[in-house]
Each structure stands twice: as structure tokens, then as C-alpha cells.
Amino acid sequence: MKVAAVAIGHGAFGKRSDASVQELAFEAFREAMADGKNLERADLDAAVLGSVPEYHKQRSLGGVVAEYLGLNPKPIWLTECACASGSAAVRTAYMAIKSGMHDVVAVIGAQKMTELSTPEILALMGRVGEVQWESIFGTTFPGYYAMFANAHMHRYGTTREQLAAVAVKNHYYGSLNKFAMFQKPVTIQRCVEADPVAFPFGIFDCCANADGAACVILASEEKARKFTDEPVWLEGAGCATTSMSVLRRPNHYSIPSAQEAARQAYRQAGVDAGDVKVADVHDCFTIAEILAYEDLGFCEKGKGGKFVEEKQSYIGGKHPVNVDGGLKAKGHPIGTTGVSMTVEIVKQLRGHADKRQVPDADIGLTHNVGGIGQYCFVNVWRR
Amino acid sequence: MKVAAVAIGHGAFGKRSDASVQELAFEAFREAMADGKNLERADLDAAVLGSVPEYHKQRSLGGVVAEYLGLNPKPIWLTECACASGSAAVRTAYMAIKSGMHDVVAVIGAQKMTELSTPEILALMGRVGEVQWESIFGTTFPGYYAMFANAHMHRYGTTREQLAAVAVKNHYYGSLNKFAMFQKPVTIQRCVEADPVAFPFGIFDCCANADGAACVILASEEKARKFTDEPVWLEGAGCATTSMSVLRRPNHYSIPSAQEAARQAYRQAGVDAGDVKVADVHDCFTIAEILAYEDLGFCEKGKGGKFVEEKQSYIGGKHPVNVDGGLKAKGHPIGTTGVSMTVEIVKQLRGHADKRQVPDADIGLTHNVGGIGQYCFVNVWRR
Predict the structure, then answer these.
(1) Closest Cβ opposite residue B63 in set A53, A71, A371
(2) Is this complex scored with an ipTM above 0.85?
(3) Which pTM value belongs to this model?
(4) What are the structural domains, with CATH classification, of chain A?
(5) pLDDT tier, A108 (very low <50, low <70, confident <90, very high otherwise)
(6) Distance CA A224, CA B230 (A)
(7) Residue A77 and residue B371: Cβ atoms within 8 Å?
(8) How far apart, in whole angstroms, are the C-alpha atoms of residue B170 and residue B281?
(9) What is the mean predicted confidence (pLDDT) over A38-42?
(10) Chain B partners of A130 at a C-beta cutoff of 8 Å?
(11) Could you tell me if A368 lies within 8 Å of chain B, comparing CB atoms?
(12) Which residues contact A59 (CB under 8 A, 6 or more apart)?
């Protein structure tokens, strides 16, 4: 059975002290309900919430979200896979529909990252790495990805400026996205001269914690055209894992789970990398986008730095990537990100992305990494 | 497509300072792998982890569990629905198989509750109620359920001794279960005279936080008989929600989500309450088991107290319930509980429950409530 995205909604990302997590969820949900054609609450069979619960004061988030969105007594459940929690929600909703258990499922990504104090957040984030053998020695997320960057620079000659080129591209596109946390372009020079975070990263190589929500309504083939004239079909849903511990990885210049998830998604959809016209990938740090180009097969292994330097990931290039600004400019509300990526790809495949529209986009892809690569979800969408 | 439980594993519940959460998961997983016939890791397509992440120091639990169990690069994802997280895992694994995405899925419930200090745990648990309007005024879990108990006593004349009779039954059966946290019988007198917690509850009316893990391997109809000669089929999987806020409930002497989830599960399985030969229900507090009898249709509304007083929920009675000791005697590792219930029902339907065996058990049921009823999952199983 085929499954389509039939409606999308997206709220503003950033420091949203104006709204609770359930209010953020409602903002995106309301927009999605309005986006669907004659779509009513009664048409929904269930909801899946992508979120990392521990950043919120409220526990049992699915419970408050179901109530606040007026979904009772419909089922809701929460999925958590660190920064890929939103894609885990998309995938379980997809399975719920393919299984015949439900016909129409709302996928909600909702996350606040600013309720807790910065030291509390840093303590929590460090422990998304392996606690027993790694985070106890002080590993942090920028530290892990900086290690990947150094490995890539050492092995393939990737340059500081090539890393910065990712930030320049994504902040440029972010300047065209009204939902982005940061809407100003930056230059290579500003990036390389910025305050250091973890060598080789400066502040512009790192995405920012953010609050925000997004919503995608999925429906079965039978129901899809009732709610939209522009269904966007989920044709490949890959998911794979790699050891959490970086000590047990085969190398530090690729994400094996991303390579495997991409293989699965391409095979299911019957396409290959060359067919992908637009992609949203997980650029939590600039190196992560370069690894994604390579892991997804958009360019040869080791050539990711050159790929962005040559603007092959801009609109007009070989594979436009993160033309919504990516995590880099949008901000990274960790449980929401996978759903936000989905919203952008659906918008692109419908041809409604305005100034950021990729011409003739018929096949799109989302690539969402959890943690430091212990999970990766790759979805292939077709209009 | 039909889906069966083909293998089960269960570890000891209690204060497990001897093991990390991934070690607990492995203990149950190893037992399940040994329980399956010629079942190898290579036969598994994916795993789902039921757990409430915030009680652990380690974040991104799916990542450490996948690595420690040797499951990389297979997919894993975590489901969270408060105390029903384990049943949410069973349900998404069921959908994963029915969807045709995976054939064999390991469902792992793994939870530590004793890593954090008691004040930290109490603070977290209070916030499983509605934070904005309720927990801020000091609501706690015993307080919520005590309110349900008072409402039931007031409306239906349920007695203190009838509440205690639930504890007496469950501790009696717990004394026959080697995995239970508490393995000693108690008397009505001891229960009613015990230290008070929240009126009318004494300490024996409340389940205990525990560490522990359980594992169930589910497989498609096509694969099931390869791994077991005694498949136990999941024939109904109901799930529903009720408002998180108790202020918005229709009453406080029933759990509407349980009634709705039961209706769904019975309808899907083509059975009614009278057909259920053995059930594991969510007795987080003694009143919760009495509500479950009524919400599931084992007795008339308001007659739950009498039902247990007359030993209708003992082996030999009309509907044997929690003959493994329930949460009351086993302890309640919140993310594991739904999987533990499943292990017991599979064991019963196979006829392998030894001294606790319900004769001629062919249809079994699990009833797992999340939080104070904001979620409920009811599954019907058939041998």
C-alpha cells in the first residue's frame, strides 16, 4: 500500500518563550489541518509525536499534546531516536498506515530546548554519547563532530574554507526562509574568523538549539486524494544503526548508518542517488553535510568539500541540499528536525517553495542523523 | 497478515545495582534468543525499545542497547508513553510486521528507576501529570489514584478491605514468581494497618519503582513456525487516549482510554470479555486493578471490589488476573511493564506457567495504562 503526505504545517523556530511545547505543536498542527483539503480532526485515526522528552519540564508529552490538539480518544505515541526522533515518528506513522491499522496519521515534531538552563542542557547533550566509556571523559557533540572533521581533513584534504562554504550556503538559503532562526547571510571570512568552538569549528560551523514544531499528515493511497490534489508519496524509508561508541566505528570520516539507510531507501524507491533532485540533510555541524553528500552518493567519497565549494549543492547545481537553510540556519529543535525536513521536501515536490524552489523537483530525500550517527533515517519522496 | 510472539525472555525485577540498563536489556534478550527455535541474531530485522528515557543517566538509549545487544546495523527506535511505553513498543513492532517492512522484530522493555535519587524521581514522576495546571499544585501519582479510589468508594461502596484484597492476591501470586521484586504473601490486616501513603492507600496499595527488563520476539505468520512450535498470536491491539488533565475527565471512577482500547482489541480479535481466560492488568495501585476489571468488562461497573473479594480474579475464578503478581509484587520498571505483561500472557497461553498456570488458557489479554490513564493499550492474544 502506498502512503502519501497530504498536508504540512511549520511554525517559527528559535527561542520561543512565547509558547509551551503543546502550543508549539498546535501552531504547526493547525497549519497542517488548514493545508489539507476538507481535512477535519475526525478524519485522523492517530498521531505520532517525535520529541526528545527530557528537555521539557512536562513529562508524558504525548498526553498533553493529544489533549491540547483535541485528539482524545485517538491513539498517540512518542518516538525517540535523539536528533532523529522526528524521522522515527514519520517512519512509524508510515508503518501504521501500510499495516492497515490506520488510514490517516498526524506526525508531529515538537520540541523545546530552552526551558532548561544551559548547564543542564549541556549535561544532557553530552550524555547522548556513550556514558560509560566516552562522555565520562568529557566528550561533547561539537567535540565528536570536530573529530570527524579532522579525520576528513587529514584523509581527504578537506579545507577549513570548504567547511565554511556549507555555512555560507545554508545561511544564504535561511535568509529566504521565514521560519528560520537565523535569516542573515554570512561570508567565508566571517565563518573562519568566528569564535572557536572545537577545532576546526567556529561558531558558524555549529547549529543552534532551538524551540519549534512541524507537522505532516500522512494518508493511505485510498484516502490521500480526498485531502490533497498534490500527494507526495513516501516511496523509500530506510533506517539503520551504527555503534554508539565511536571507539567501535570502522572510521571517523563517514557515518555507516547513513550509507546503509540510503541503500535501503533507494532500493525500496527504485531510484539511485543521481535521481534525487532536492535533499534536506542533517547539517548539525558543517562537516556533517559534507559527510552526507558522500554517504548519500551525491559525490564520490572524499569529494564533499569540493562539491560545496563548486556550488553543486546550490539550486542550479547537481544536487541542491538544504535550500531551506538546514539545521544550520533554521535551528535544531532536535525532535522536530526530521518532520521539518519532511515539510520542506513536500513543499519542494509540490513546487511551492517560492524563491527557494528547485526547478523540476520530482524526487526528494530527507537524511536525519540521530546523535553522532548511532541512528540514521533516509526517506525518498516522489511527487 | 497475522503476527505471533515466537520467543520470550524476562530478567529479575528489583533494585538491580548489579547491572546497567543495557546489561538488563541483554539479560532478557539473551533468554528470548535462547527460547526461540534456531533463532539467531541474523534472523532479526529490527528492534523496538520500550523505555522512559529520563530516569537514566545515559541518553539515546536505543543507541547503547542496539550496540550492546550486537544489533548494529539493524534499525532500532524507542517508544515512550509513560508507564505504557512497553506496550507502545509491542504495538509499533506489530505494525512494522503487518506493514511488510520487517518480518521479525525484537521488542525490548528496559528500565532502570534507581539510578537517580528519590527526590529526583519524585520530581520527575509528579510531572507525568499535567504540569501547567495540576502538578504545580502538588499532585502526585499516589494522590491521583487515591482520588480515583475515593470516588469509587463513594459511588459504589467499595471498601478498604476490597482494595487490600487486590494486594493480597497479587502478593500471593508474586510469591510463586521468581522474577518478582517481592515474593512474600501479605494479609488483609497487614495491608489495612500499613503505613499510610495517600488516603485510603497504605504502602501495600502502591507498586514499587523497580529496575528490570523483558523481551518478546514477534514474527510474521510466514516466519513464526520457523522459530517456535507454540506461536501465540496477537489478534487485537487497541490503543486510546483520555485527557491528561483529570479536570477534563467525565468522571474519576473509570479510565475512558481503557474502555475504548478494550473495545478496539475485542473487535479486532472477534472476542468479548467473557472469552478472556487470563489477563495481566495495570495494578500500579490497588484501585487500578478494580477499575481494570470494570473497564475491560470482566464484571459490571461498580462491582470490581466484590469481584476480587469473591476471588473471581484468582485461578479458578471467572477471570484470573495478574497471576504473575502484577506490578504490585513484580515491581514496576515503567518502560518494561508492558513487555513483562506480554511475556506472562505468552507463557500462560503456551501452558508453561507452572504453579501459576491458568487451566485451558487459550485467550489472554494485556492492559497497560500510561500515566493516570492518558494512554491505554489493550492487546488480545490467542494460542
Answers:
(1) A371
(2) yes
(3) 0.98
(4) 3-117+210-233 (3.40.47.10), 133-208+234-382 (3.40.47.10)
(5) very high
(6) 40
(7) no
(8) 11
(9) 97
(10) 58, 63-64, 67
(11) no
(12) A53, B52, B54, B82, B124, B125, B127, B128, B131
